[in-house]
Amino acid sequence: MSKQPPAIGIDLGTTFSVVAMLNEAGQPETLVNAEGDRLTPSLVLFDNDQVIVGKEALKALATEAEWVAECAKRDIGHRVFHKAIGGKQYPPEVIEAFILNKLRVDTTARIGDYEKVVITVPAYFDEVRRKATQDAGYMAGFEVMDIINEPTAAAIAFGYQKGFLSRDGFPHKPEIILVYDLGGGTFDVTVMELHGREFRALATDGDVRLGGFDWDQRLVDLVAEAFARQHFLDPREDARAAGKLWRECEEAKRTLSVRPKTFVPVDFMGRTARIEVTRQQFEEATQDLLDRTRFTTEQTLRAAGLTWEKVDRVLLVGGATRMPMVREMLRKLSGLEPDASVEADEAVAHGAALHAGLLLAKSQGKPRLFKIKNVNSHSLGVVGIDPLTKRRRNGIVIPRNTPLPTTARRIFRTQKDNQRSILVEVVEGESPSADDCTLIGRCSVRNLPPGLPAKSPVHVYFHYHPNGRLKVRVEVPNTHAKIETEFKRENSLPKEHLDGWRKYICGKDPTDYT
Ligand code: ADP
Ligand code: MG
Q1: % the chain with pLDDT above 90
Q2: Using a 6 Å CB cutoff, which residues line ligand 1?
Q3: pTM of the predicted protein model
């Protein structure tokens, strides 16, 4: 009998990544990297021909920032990373693939070869970003069994820790959990119902461009301005000095989580200073960021049709929830003591490993320990032209927060006799204007049977998988025509590029992949 593959979950974070595996007893454990650390900084240093990921890349930010790619997760879904490195423009998922490859190589050295993994994504990631994350896994030499939402993964890790996943340990009365995840670069809030061993998402929202990193930037501004008042020089104007200052400020931010004040050393163009920052100054300078998370949290609760009295638990996830201002705000809002019982930085990877274990068990016909029910985080729409204004309009087909999986049908009509093709543009977003939404792709329906009269119906089915990935299918009623639907994705790397990068990054040959 072949050996059962290990159940591996990866939290590919904006600032830190974590790999976890289920041990013999089925418990999730964090796997350390080659440096012996549980958390791997999600940064990539391009050093001539060498690509270095993790701690050394983080250090290099202070001295050779122009060669370091940081926060690539924030750019996922865009065509290229926001800065060119050595004149080269990398797709963000390629940078993510370099990070994943290091995680693969380091953990392989400890546990032996494996391919199958589950990777986590913010619940608020749209379809394009989900696809790009799966592509990153492929380029890193993995077989991505599934992607799972980070708050769901955290809730599963929490449920496991509480013994809810054991045979009789689950709570018999439904429990409402609000998962507040403030990481380095993304903010996610999800309202979930835990019922028996079922984890059901009720509503989710967030901000893919809000996280601890923004708090750092405010501290950088605070310190740089104080330095400039003393020396009439601004360290932010130089990439290296700015990189170094950012590292100092990120440290200082952590200190301010436990101490009321700290000093940030600044050394720029021969001038040095020790700038004092108090927690109060820091909190005042970042109040609006916190308010944005509060606003989103309340909105999500409303979207779930609930009020604070109904919430049983506020679960804290993400390193940035260690800031006292976050806990204080949530305490005031909810009237509950926020629950920090799961390891803020590792819970997501642990939940992903539990999900990987579930998928492997399922493939062997074993019973499932728990069930996940997800919702879509963005409305799905097709683009139409408003007959009056001639503007491109978003016609919503599947509203956000719809339980998944789900299928919706939309009927299009041919415009002229013998029309042989139709083009459907698919977007995600809430705005009525199509141009304010994310274009997922263009679906061209070709080979319609000949001789169809004008106004013939064409049925287009949109199917969301439980993990938020989309499939499109087309039918023409009363015909058996085999219709080609090619879903041409926007900002997505074609298969040949994925294969080329895969070979380059991890030395593996292409495999079938959809
Ligand atoms: P991600 O998953 O987005 O990479 P993490 O959950 O690992 O993020 O959180 C990283 C963020 O948490 C960083 O911005 C880091 O500065 C912040 N962080 C970690 N520990 C603390 C702390 N003690 N106080 C304040 N912020 C912290
Ligand atoms: Mg995270």
Answers
A1: 76
A2: 13-16, 183-186, 211-213, 250, 253-254, 257, 318-320, 322-323, 345
A3: 0.92
